[in-house]
Design a protein that fits this description.
Blueprint (H helix, E strand, L loop, with lengths): L20 E5 L2 E4 H12 L7 E3 L4 H13 L4 E3 L5 H10 L3 E5 L13 E3 L23 E6 L9 E5 H15 L7 E4 L6 H13 L3 E3 L6 H10 L4 E5 L1 H10 L8 E4 L6 H11 L2 E8 L3 E7 L6 E3 L4 E5 L2 E6 L2 E5 L2 E5 L4 E7 L3 E4 L2 E4 H9 L6 E5 L14 E5 L5 H9 L11 E3 L13 H10 L4 E7 L19 H16 L6 E8 L8 E9 L2 E8 L2 E10 L7
Parallel strand pairs: 1-10, 3-5, 4-7, 5-6, 9-10, 9-11, 11-12, 12-13, 24-25
Antiparallel strand pairs: 1-2, 7-8, 13-14, 14-15, 15-20, 16-17, 17-18, 19-20, 21-22, 23-24, 26-28, 27-30, 28-29, 29-30
């Protein structure tokens, strides 16, 4: 029988081997027994209703999740933090939102939610041995909601037995060595990826978990340093790239685990060289959990976990796991032997414009491969606009040090012209969620915020320009009047006769601009008002509001 089947893994207790070290936070260590004692105390404070844990800190989340199960309830796990959406979920499931004192997500607690004491502040000594219940295999442990990448989030029920079985199967592939590792995670515990690899791995297998602030590379460095060897790092492609670019001094890492988005081989290679480790990817989804893994640099083939069954037919592919029903996946796959497969593309990924087709993921890959682009995404026209011959893709990019025109020029060399946007929207950051995903709703909202904004051109003053001699000695700064004049000239050149003459209603110079720095001008118009602004790399340096004056017709 497969190793990950529920029958072959008899320990369905809440905490596996409670005598071991379970959680680490700085110099504080929590054993499984101490963890259970604190979870029982929290459980006594919970109402008899399903719980939505609003905890961004993985350690506090674990205490609250265990307390929920000890109370005989299940947890609702969602990445949503909008008050109206949380209210809908809580009402639909007759649940209550709960957070813990000091947690970074406590500010998202909706009206009617409760705040529990922080178990990290409690005395860890106990003379009593707390109950470590063995939960029924079919016991509902959580309803996990999708991220809403392509639409409205959907909840999926997870039984305790299935979660335990998957944890054991995953450990065999993620950490095959015999010595117990300590996991460090940069991903949130309420997303399926972090829930499986951080929370469930530490509860159901031999590994321990190091927790603490995890927003920036310096935070991850601190956690890696405080964690005992051997260490495993659980992260995402975007975060792994940030860690590589930070150039920090890091301790050895046994293995890096990445998921939530495709990992570029160049990032994997940089990480393996810097950390002297190997980088593994996980394939899975909220609907099915983790299902397969691969080492990025060893090729495109994925290896299924033990107990996972993949069925491929002309109608599509489904994956089934112990204790869970078969579920159709959103990818086109090709089998490569008894336990292997390759991904050929994503169902519904094709975009058709002007009679030509392209893969949305391929377009995004081409954009993000441009030197200097740190992040970027294409947004196709919405609904019926796809059939409009004049419809164009929208493109958003984060690329400090590069201009929109430069990126557009590079993009022209990489993709079919029909899929080129009219301009590139340069941003400080894309609205990715905690695991680095861009939801369709967030991209549509981003597009509406930049609706009708057009790129006009760029402006640059060389260091030897005569205007800089006295402005200012020892620290030359581009005169604001020259930048304003250049912006107005770009506006007139691109838009032609827009109703000039115009009245300048407001000008704000927000940041000094220095020689050889490029300022990109953008503008949008509403009735008789034009908003013009200049951007340098990832920040706005100039804002102008123009009011167009009507010309008097001759008598």
């Amino acid at each position: 029988m497969p190793q990950s089947s529920i029958e072959s893994w008899p320990d369905l207790s809440l905490v596996h081997a409670p005598e071991r070290m379970l959680l680490l936070r700085g110099d504080r260590h929590i054993t499984g027994t101490q963890f259970l004692a604190a979870a029982h105390r929290l459980a006594a404070l919970l109402p008899d209703r399903p719980v939505m844990p609003l905890c961004g800190d993985t350690g506090r989340f674990m205490f609250l999740f265990a307390a929920t199960l000890l109370r005989g309830q299940h947890a609702l796990l969602t990445s949503e933090r909008a008050a109206d959406r949380l209210f809908d979920l809580l009402t639909t499931h007759d649940a209550i939102a709960v957070t813990v004192e000091g947690d970074p997500d406590a500010s998202s607690l909706p009206e009617g939610g409760i705040v529990l004491p922080d178990p990290w502040a409690w005395d860890r000594t106990t003379d009593d041995v707390p109950v470590n219940p063995s939960l029924p295999a079919d016991r509902l442990a959580a309803i996990v909601f999708t991220s809403g990448s392509t639409g409205r989030p959907i909840g999926h029920r997870k039984s305790w037995g299935a979660l335990v079985a998957r944890s054991v199967a995953a450990l065999d592939l993620l950490d095959p060595e015999t010595e117990s590792a300590c996991i460090i995670g940069t991903v949130p515990p309420y997303h399926m990826y972090g829930f499986e690899t951080l929370v469930l791995q530490s509860l159901n297998t031999r590994v321990s978990l190091s927790v603490g602030p995890s927003r920036y590379p310096a935070d991850w460095q601190d956690q890696l340093r405080q964690a005992p060897a051997p260490r495993m790092l659980v992260t995402t492609p975007l975060q792994l790239r940030s860690l590589c670019r930070a150039g920090l001094d890091l301790p050895p890492v046994r293995r890096v685990i990445s998921a939530a988005a495709p990992l570029d081989a160049s990032v994997a290679a940089d990480a393996e060289e810097m950390l002297k480790t190997e980088v593994m990817e996980i394939y899975g989804a909220t609907e099915i959990g983790s299902a397969a893994t691969r080492r990025t640099l060893e090729g495109p083939e994925w290896r299924l976990y033990d107990g996972i069954e993949l069925s491929v037919t002309q109608a599509g592919a489904t994956i089934a796991a112990p204790g869970a029903p078969a579920y159709p996946i959103s990818d086109v796959v090709e089998r490569t032997g008894a336990r292997g497969f390759r991904l050929l593309g994503r169902i519904g990924d094709l975009i058709k414009l002007g009679g030509k087709r392209a893969s949305l993921s391929a377009l995004n890959a081409a954009l993000n491969a441009i030197p200097g682009v740190e992040d970027g995404a294409f947004l196709p026209p919405d609904g019926e606009r796809l059939a409009d011959p004049a419809a164009r893709m929208q493109v958003f990019a984060v690329a400090p040090g590069r201009t929109a025109d430069e990126i557009l020029h590079d993009l022209k060399q990489r993709i079919d012209p029909i899929f080129l946007p009219r301009g590139i929207r340069m941003l400080d950051a894309l609205p990715r969620n905690a695991v680095g995903k861009l939801t369709l709703a967030s991209l549509r909202k981003l597009a509406s915020n930049h609706e009708d904004e057009e790129s006009l051109g760029a402006f640059n003053i060389p260091a030897d320009h005569p205007c800089l001699a006295g402005h200012f000695p020892g620290m030359p700064v581009v005169p604001g009047v020259m930048m304003l004049d250049a912006g107005l000239a770009c506006l007139a050149n691109e838009w032609g006769d827009v109703g000039f003459p115009v009245h300048i209603r407001m000008v704000k110079f927000l940041k000094p601009v220095f020689p050889d720095e490029t300022v990109q001008f953008l503008a949008r118009r509403s009735d008789n008002t034009i908003w013009l602004h200049g951007r340098r790399a990832d920040e706005t340096v100039l804002r102008v509001v123009l009011e167009m004056k009507r010309r008097h017709e001759p008598a």
